[in-house]
Amino acid sequence: VNAAPSRDRESQTALILSIVIGALVGLVVVAFILLTGRLAVRMYPPGSAAIRRVLFPVLGALVSGYLLFKYFPEARGSGIPQTKFALFLRDGYISFRTTAGKFLCCSASLASGIALGREGPSVHIGAGIASVLARRFGLSPARTRELIPVGCSAALAAAFNTPIAAVLFSLEEILGDLHATVLGSAVISSATAWMVLHLILGDEPLFHVPAYQLVNPTEFLIYAVLGVIGGLGSVAFVKLLLAIRIWFRKLPSGTAWAYPVAGGLLVGLMGWFMPEVMGVGYDYVERVLDGDVAVKTVALLAVMKIVATASCYGSGNAGGIFGPALFIGATIGGAVGGIAHHLFPAWTANPGAYALVGMGTAFAGIVRTPLTSVIMIFEMTRDYSIIVPLMISNLVAFFVSYKLQRQPIYEALAHQEGVFLPGGEDREHLARMQVFEAMRTACIREDASPGAALEQLAAEGHDSLPVVEGNRLIGMVTRAELEALASRGATPVAVDANAPVPFVHGDQPLSLALEKMGASGLDTLPVVSRADLREFLGTVTLPDVLNAYGLKHRPRV
Amino acid sequence: MRELPWSSIFIVAASIVALFTVDRMLAKVERSEVQREANLEHHSGLALLAAGRADAALPHLSRAASLARSNRDFRLDFAEALQRAGDRDQAETEVRDVLSIDSNDGRANLLMARLMAGASRSAEADAYYHRAIYGAWYRDPNAKRLQTRLELADYLARQNRQQELLSELLVLQDAARADPALARRVAQLFLEAGSPAGAVQAWRDIIRASPDDPDGYRGLGEAELRAGDFRSAEAAYLTLLRHRPDDEEAAKRFRFAETLERMDPTPRRLSSAEKYRRSTALLVAVRDSVAACPAATSNADTKPLMDQSEQAVKARPRGPVANEASESVITLAERLWNSAGADCRSRQRPEDPVPLLMDKLKGS
User: Fold this and answer.
1) Out of B12, B26, B27, whose CB is closest to A24?
2) ipTM given for this complex
3) Is the whole-model pTM more than 0.90?
4) Among A207, A534, B120, B299, which lies 20 to 30 A Cα-Cα from B198?
5) b vs e for B304-333, b when ≥16 Cβ sit within 10 Å of the residue's Cβ?
């Protein structure tokens, strides 16, 4: 009796917390961005001695590696898999220590020039803040879980300045359900974080891009080629990262604090010759987007960034792969665009246009969220004119990446940890199993006697069946009701035609039928037409549902 | 009813306030550092641009523009450097970007006009020049608008669009009263606009305002020559020589004006014989000029006229010469000159009297 008011109160608290989480996460992420950016400028400013570009990544990796090993083991990596672990395995639990550790270690490693991104860690920090606040305000584990994507949305909205894509990412990647009930809260927190960002840093997109346009319809072909190359690049990156990570995981765990140094040293040596490879690299991405492209340089940088990021991540540094994915995509796009523009100058846009599309391509190929990547690139650049080529290229890259590397990166990373999270395919398969697939035509005729109906129930092994006249559903009758009718000598079967009848439609998922059976206490349900709820189409029974899921029904004793 | 968790609320509120303060401080530091770096880059870029090293200036100005996106001057300086370095497409993209933010920006419109002019897209160039003239200038708007109109006039002069040039000069003339340098330029442009009378008037106004300015007489002399008033030109150059007796160029132009005066067959005071003599001399000069131009001699129309000229020059009329004879020689000279084609006519040296005399004949 007291559960309903308590649930309402929790709902209200969760709603208010969505706003608070948006504000708090927005502020923390802005501080994170500013801090890492300013520290990086001080550690290896442009034009400084090359030795600094080797020294600082090594030092940064050493410091963050030790902190991660000794104090914050949960803060390793990008933060997206860890957020999903919290969501699916720990009832949304992320400790304050992990959240603070993520902020500290990522600040140290990203500021020192480690070639990783700040968006994944921001998502983890956002989810951590949401989790801590939910527990602090006494919310149930279920509500705490619901607030995790809310924190993620806020973090991504502030980190990328992309409020819509942030919500989509939280639903598409973190939750794996675009129709999740937390959509409203995620939108609120995302909008709040975005407002905080604007309040402090002003109205500036992440990248300023000239207004590119499709010059000639034949460009679609080149964008498709970019999709293929971007997809191949994405696969190369994911496979290399996973392989390096596996290799490091085989090394003795007692000296794990030192392994990030390998990534730091490699990126430092690369930075000696090509400083652009260091850090997040958004400055250089903006240059490539402006069309400032020397094909050889951008092609070399694409390869170097793939190796550097894979090594930094695989060796156990703290940082994400969103930013590097954009860098890799922009450089691949710049190289493809540069060649295309050199060969067909009259038919193709500036290479910057290809770099822009390339960003989305790599994101779709690596992170495997094609919808989020289109919206994200659109929001980052505020350029609508390139959206169709972007969609084409994204889908091609997604397809190529899916064919050559079935497991998405975050799923593969979770598997390396020994965790099997619900994948997109599982959810899709479950959603695909519909009532039609398990439907039969069992029913009781309205003119049947209670005795005959009881015999039918016994023969078919059910406790209940729909009662029909012709193809019209009259109602449901249970074994107990029939026995009562039989003892009174009533004939034929009489049911209350006005009583509410639980039902399902043929195109609804089987899981829903199972839920409705549980709620109504019946082991069969009538399947009715969507156009006419009294039009009887068939019956779905509990054994048939279980059979469809591959389970044998144990006969009632 | 459960107690509100006041301690948690207080911690969250305090965290928000503290973080907001820290963020504002960090953002302020970032903005000032970025602005300082942008200013340094911009300064270096401008110095290189002023030294004529547009290519070297580009990276600096590009960085300054990307660091301080909201600074339109930085972006337009970058666009100007791109234009000077020959990267017109990129410059156009940059300027269009600024114009998309403020289509009324005077400087952006002026830069776009220059880009369009450089790309021979004259209709668009005209439109952007006019938008620049009537657009918003944030520093010294009147002077900038005047400079822009003058630049438009120069552009029209280069395009040889005399009617449009003349209409711009009429507007500029008002402003030129208070600006001697502008007045001189306007007076020069009147000649380009094919209005020597306007140029004469403009130079007279300049001399009236500063009678001791020798350059005013030089300009007036040139304008009078073009207007066909060779005697007034002589007077102007003479005055100039009084101010600058050692000016060899002035002395040369004075002698040139004298030559023209002596060759001119149009004055009414001339006797018939003198007019005929001058007409024949003019025909000889025209014939020699045309003969010196290979394109004209290969022209089928010119050949018979050259033969007729030979005959007219050799003819020795007996007794008093009728005015009609002089007129027919002048007409022959005009036909021969016109047959030579514009290319040959424009190739004449400045000290060649024929073009000016033929212009005068055409005008009369």
Assistant:
1) B12
2) 0.74
3) no
4) B120
5) ebbeebeebeeeeeeeebeeebbeebbebb
